[in-house]
Amino acid sequence: MDRAPSDPLALILSASPYNAMDIDMPRDCIFTIEPGFEDPKHPGKLWFCPFCNQIEGILATFPEVAAHFAVTRLPFPRPRQPVIDLIGADHQGLPVLVFADAAAAPPDAKTANGYRFVDDTRRILEIVAERSGIPAPH
User: pTM of whole model > 0.90?
Assistant: First the structure.
């Protein structure tokens, strides 16, 4: 799919370190929260997102997944502008998988601002397994 240079997903994908392998091939993008963040509501303690960490576990266990998906880790505080630019402020909860090609998104994907996305962690794991050839979650 050809996207204009000002398209938010195209800009995010071009900036992703994982995108260097297939510059001309648009990729679906997984957004997670950077682990080891501080929460202003609970000062003095570091946290990780248990939902995002499931995605991080797959990325660490199966490094070949990076050949199929761009991965963008965002800071914990909102607003999470890269996600807002794509699917709007109502959908900044992470993790989220945004599809580069809306036509290739599964039927259960949600739609916002012309993009298709999945924000259910279990479903993201299933799609990652299907599209990258790794074992499926049990």
Answer: no
Residue 64: what residue type?
Answer: E
CA distance 68 to 38: 30
Q: Do residues 69 and 132 touch, judged by C-beta distance below 8 A?
A: yes
CA distance 58 to 55: 5
Q: Find the angle CA(131)-CA(94)-CA(62) to the nearest 5 degrees.
A: 35
Q: How far apart are CA 46 and CA 137, in angstroms?
A: 28
pLDDT digits (tens, 9 = 90+) for 34-80: 999 999 999 999 999 999 999 999 999 999 999 999 999 999 999 99
In sequence order, which ranges of the chain are alpha helices (DSSP H)? 8-15, 50-61, 81-87, 121-132
Q: What residues have CB less than 8 Å from 22, skipping those under 6 apart?
A: 67
